[in-house]
Design brief:
Structural class of chain B: alpha/beta
Oligomer: heterodimer
Shape of chain B: globular
Order of helices and strands of chain A: HHHHHEEH
Strand order of the largest sheet of chain A: 1-2
CATH architecture of the largest domain in chain B: 3-Layer(bba) Sandwich
Number of domains of chain B: 2
Helix content of chain B: 25-40%
Radius of gyration of chain B: 24 Å
Distance between the termini of chain A: 14 Å
Largest interface: A-B, 28 and 28 residues
Shape of chain A: globular
Helix content of chain A: 55-70%
CATH class of the largest domain in chain B: Alpha Beta
Distance between the termini of chain B: 23 Å
Strand content of chain A: 5-15%
Structural class of chain A: mainly alpha
C-alpha cells in the first residue's frame, strides 16, 4: 500500500463506513492469522490481483479525507463492486484492506 | 339458514343456482357477493361452527416431505376455515407478480394487476383494513417520515395492514349469510362424489355425507370449489380418477406446481446505531400497519430474481451470535459422526464468540445469565419470506390410504429447489449492496448456516398455492382467467390453489379479491 499505514487506513475505513469492524477484528490471535490468510486467498481467487496492488491503484492516498473515502466505498456499492467475507458484504476497497492483513509474510 | 347435515333424517336432493363447496375466506366471500343476485345459494361446509376433532382428522395427510411442515395442523376444518387462526397480514400483489418473467420458469398469469385492482379495494373491507390503500407515500406521510432508501435505490419500503382483532370470516359474516333468504349453509357436509356429464361438460351434482349412512346431493347451475390450496387439488384429483382426467387434468397439471412461502433467517444487518431499521409500525385501534422492505420492480428485472419480504427485527449480541449457531451446527454433525461443511469457519466463529457460547450454555443448562452485555443491541435479523418458483415436481398426490369418509388421503411432495436458493441469495445480495450504497450499515448473509436455515430452522407461511393454477391454456394450467376449470362449462375454483405464482406476500387478500371478481363473472353469466 502506497504511503499509508494499515493502522491509519483501518481507522479511515472504520470511520468512513458504518461497518462494525470489531465483527472482523474480534478473533483471537490464532483465528485472526488463520482467518485473514483465508480471506487473502479468497481475494486472490476472486479478484486475481494482490490486495495491496488493488489499493495502491485505487485513488486512495495518505491525505484522503473521510468524506472522499466514504464516497469511494459508496461508489463501490453503487457499481456492485463487492467482496463477501464469511457472508459479510463489503465494498471492494474494504475487502482489499481486510485481505491485505493476510498477505503472506 | 343453517342446516346441520348430521340432523338430516333422510337423503336430501337439493336444487340451487350456485353451490359453493367450502366456507373459508373464498367461499364466504362468494356467498356474500352472490346472495343478492341468485335466489338459491347453497354452501357446503365439511366442519361445524367450531373446531371438532372429528372434522379436523379428515385433514390428516398420509405423508409429507422432510423439511416441510404437517399441513394437517396449519389448516382448520370448520366454518371460517383457516381464517380462524390466520394473522390477518395483508398486502396486494405487485404488477410484476402477474407478468411472465423469463428467468422464472412457469411464471405469467393470464390476468394482470389492472384486472384485480378494483377488487382489491373491496377486499380491503372484507379483511377489515379499510380502503386507504398500501401506497408507501401515503403511509410515510402518516408516520411523518421518509423511506431510508433513496428513490433511485433497488430497495424500497412497503406496508402491510391487518385488522385488530383478526378477521374471522364466519364470525364476521356468518350471521348475515344465515339470515339471508337466498342462502342455505349445510354444516358437517363432507363432499364425497361428483356427477359430471361428458356431453354437456357440466358438473350436474355434488354428493355429500355427514358421517352417517345417508348421502345427499346438490344439483346446481354453477359449482365453485373453495376447499383450500391442498384440498382443491385432492378433490379434483379424485374427480378425475372417475372421469379419466376430463376435468381440467388433460395435461396432468392438477396438484402440481405446489408452492408455499418459506420463511428464512437469511441475513443480519449491522449498523452503528438503532435508527435506520427500527420497526415502523402503528396500532390504529381497529388495525395495524407495519413496514417491510422489498426489491423494486427495476431491481427484480435488472437482477432477474424473485422478490423477498423483509421485515427487520432488533436483536441482541446474544441472539446474533455466529458462535452459538456454529456450536449447534457442529454439535448436530458430531452427534451423527459427521464433520459439518465449512468446519473451519464454524471453529473460528466458536472461538471468537466463546463468551456468548458460554452464555448460551449457562442459559440453557443453569437457567442463568453470565454476561449482562450479551443483551446489548447487536443488529437486525431479517426473517424474510421468499417467493417460491413454481415447479412441476412439487405436488399433491392421492395416496393409497383413505380417510373415514372413503376419500384418499394425500402425499405432499415439497422441496426448495436450487433455483429458489440461488435467487434467494441473489436478492439478499441486492439488498446488502443497497444497504452499503445508502450508508446504512453492512449485511451478513447466513450462507454458512445453510444446513439449518434451509433445514430445521426454515419456517413457512403455510400458504398452500398453485395446485390448480390459472393459465392461458389447458396445456399449462387447470383453470382459465375466469377460474373456470378447463374442459368444463360450470365448474369454478377459488382460493390460492389458482395462483400461477405466489408473490412474496401473504395470499388471503388476493384470494378475497379474486373471489369477488369471480362472483362478478358468475353474476354476468346469470
Amino acid at each position: 500500500m502506497k504511503q499509508i499505514s494499515r493502522r491509519k487506513f483501518i481507522g479511515l475505513i472504520a470511520g468512513a463506513s458504518t461497518i462494525i469492524f470489531t465483527k472482523l477484528n474480534s478473533y483471537d490471535q490464532f483465528n485472526k492469522r488463520y482467518k485473514y490468510k483465508n480471506i487473502y486467498q479468497q481475494w486472490i481467487n476472486e479478484k486475481h490481483i494482490e490486495p495491496t496492488t488493488y489499493l495502491s491503484e485505487s485513488t486512495i492516498h495518505e491525505a484522503i479525507s473521510k468524506k472522499e473515502l466514504e464516497d469511494l466505498i459508496i461508489d463501490d456499492f453503487n457499481h456492485s463492486r463487492v467482496f463477501i467475507v464469511d457472508g459479510l458484504v463489503l465494498s471492494e476497497i474494504e475487502g482489499a484492506l481486510v485481505a491485505s492483513f493476510g498477505v503472506p509474510s | 339458514m343453517i342446516v346441520d347435515g348430521k340432523k338430516l333424517e333422510s337423503s336430501l336432493d337439493v336444487k340451487a343456482d350456485v353451490c359453493i363447496l367450502g366456507a373459508g375466506p373464498a367461499g364466504i366471500t362468494l356467498a356474500r357477493e352472490l346472495k343478492s343476485a341468485f335466489s338459491r345459494v347453497i354452501v357446503l361446509e365439511a366442519g361445524d361452527e367450531t373446531y371438532t376433532q372429528e372434522s379436523q382428522d379428515v385433514y390428516k395427510v398420509n405423508s409429507y416431505s422432510t423439511n416441510y411442515r404437517d399441513p394437517s395442523v396449519s389448516r382448520l376444518r370448520f366454518l371460517g376455515g383457516t381464517s380462524n387462526h390466520w394473522l390477518n397480514n395483508t398486502s396486494p400483489f405487485s404488477k410484476i407478480d402477474f407478468e411472465y418473467r423469463s428467468w422464472i420458469p412457469n411464471s405469467g398469469w393470464p390476468i394482470s394487476l389492472k384486472d384485480l385492482e378494483p377488487y382489491y379495494l373491496r377486499a380491503s373491507e372484507y379483511v377489515g383494513t379499510h380502503q386507504d390503500g398500501y401506497e408507501k407515500d401515503y403511509w410515510f406521510n402518516y408516520f411523518k417520515t421518509k423511506d431510508i432508501f433513496q428513490p433511485s435505490s433497488q430497495i424500497e419500503s412497503s406496508f402491510a395492514k391487518g385488522a385488530i382483532p383478526q378477521t374471522r370470516f364466519f364470525e364476521k359474516y356468518g350471521k348475515e349469510l344465515i339470515e339471508a333468504p337466498s342462502v342455505t349453509i349445510y354444516k358437517n357436509a363432507n363432499v364425497i362424489d361428483i356427477e359430471f356429464s361428458l356431453d354437456s361438460k357440466k358438473v350436474e351434482k355434488i354428493y355429500f355425507n355427514s358421517y352417517n349412512d345417508l348421502n345427499h346431493s346438490v344439483e346446481a347451475k354453477y359449482f365453485v370449489m373453495c376447499f383450500g390450496g391442498i384440498e382443491n387439488a385432492r378433490f379434483l384429483l379424485l374427480f378425475n380418477q372417475k372421469y379419466k382426467n376430463k376435468i381440467g387434468n388433460a395435461y396432468d397439471n392438477v396438484g402440481r406446481y405446489f408452492m408455499d412461502h418459506p420463511s428464512i433467517k437469511a441475513a443480519n444487518i449491522f449498523t452503528q446505531d438503532k435508527k435506520p431499521f427500527a420497526p415502523l409500525s402503528s396500532d390504529m385501534g381497529d388495525r395495524h400497519v407495519g413496514r417491510f422492505f422489498q426489491l423494486t420492480e427495476k431491481a427484480l428485472k435488472d437482477n432477474e430474481t424473485v422478490n423477498i419480504r423483509m421485515p427487520t427485527v432488533e436483536q441482541s449480541e446474544y441472539t446474533l451470535s455466529d458462535g452459538i449457531s456454529s456450536f449447534h451446527i457442529m454439535s448436530a454433525a458430531f452427534g451423527k459422526g459427521e464433520i459439518p461443511d465449512q468446519m473451519s469457519s464454524h471453529l473460528a466463529n466458536f472461538f471468537s464468540d466463546i463468551d456468548l457460547v458460554a452464555e448460551a450454555i449457562a442459559r440453557t443448562s443453569f437457567d442463568s445469565s453470565l454476561f449482562e452485555s450479551s443483551n446489548d443491541f447487536g443488529g437486525y435479523e431479517i426473517g424474510l419470506m421468499l417467493e417460491q418458483t413454481p415447479h412441476r415436481d412439487n405436488r399433491i398426490l392421492l395416496s393409497k390410504n383413505r380417510d373415514k369418509l372413503g376419500i384418499p388421503t394425500i402425499d405432499v411432495h415439497w422441496e426448495l429447489k436450487d433455483i429458489d436458493k440461488k435467487l434467494l441469495w441473489r436478492s439478499v445480495e441486492v439488498f446488502a449492496t443497497e444497504v452499503g450504497a445508502n450508508s446504512l450499515g453492512r449485511v451478513k448473509l447466513m450462507k454458512e448456516r445453510a444446513s439449518r436455515i434451509f433445514g430445521d430452522q426454515m419456517g413457512f407461511g403455510h400458504h398452500h398455492m398453485g395446485t390448480t393454477r390459472m393459465s392461458h391454456d389447458e396445456r399449462n394450467g387447470v383453470v382459465d382467467s375466469n377460474q373456470l376449470v378447463f374442459g368444463t362449462e360450470n365448474f369454478y375454483i377459488s382460493g390460492c390453489s389458482v395462483f400461477t405464482t405466489g408473490s412474496h406476500v401473504p395470499p388471503t387478500f388476493t384470494i378475497v379479491a379474486l373471489s369477488i371478481r369471480l362472483a362478478e363473472h358468475i353474476k354476468i353469466r346469470g
